[in-house]
Amino acid sequence: MVFKYSREEDFTLLSVDIRHSQNLKESLEQYVIGELLDGPNAYFCEKCNKKVDTIKRTCFKKLPPILAIQLKRFDYDWERETPIKFNDYFEFPRELDMEPYTVQGLAKAEGKLRS
C-alpha cells in the first residue's frame, strides 16, 4: 500500500523543464509524474510512527484565474563552469486543458489504469 500525504500552496507561476520534452503537454506530464519514495528514502509517517512507501509529486488542486508558465530554458554545466541555453523547438497549444494535471484528473487516470 502506498501512503498518501498532501500539502497545499498557492501559486501563480509554473516553471516547467523543457530539456526532455518536445511540447508543453510532455513537460506537464513530467511535472506531475512523481517519484516513488521507498526503502531508505521512504516517507516517515508521524501518525504511524514508521517509514512508509509513498509517491512524491506535484499536482494542482485549484488553478489560479491566470496561470503564467515559465519554460526553463537554461541550465548550468558544472564541468565547464558555463551556463547552457536550450534553443530546441518547443510546441505549445493555443488552448491548454489543465484537467489531466489536477488532483481529480490524476485520480481519474490512475483509476483507469487500475481497472
Report on this model:
The chain is an alpha+beta fold and 115 residues long. The chain has a domain at 13-33 and 60-114. Helix content is 18%, strand content 26%. The chain contains two helices and eight strands. It has helices at 24-32, 103-114; strands at 13-17, 35-37, 43-45, 50-52, 54-56, 68-72, 74-77, 82-85. The strands form four sheets. A two-stranded parallel sheet has the order 1-6. A hairpin with a 4-residue loop joins strand 3 and strand 4. The longest helix is centred in the last third of the chain and has 12 residues, at 103-114. The chain starts with 12 loop residues before the first strand and ends with a helix. The mean pLDDT is 87.
Helix/strand structural class: alpha+beta
In spatial order, strands of the major sheet run 1-6
Summarize model confidence as the mean pLDDT.
87
- What is the terminal-to-terminal distance? 17 Å
Radius of gyration: 17 Å
Would you count the extended β strands for me? 8
Major sheet: 2 strands, parallel
Question: How many separate helices?
Answer: 2
In sequence order, what are the helices and strands, one letter per element? EHEEEEEEEH
The share of residues in helices is 10-25%
| Molecular shape | globular
List segments where confidence is low: pLDDT < 50 over at least 5 consecutive residues: none
What proportion strand?
25-35%
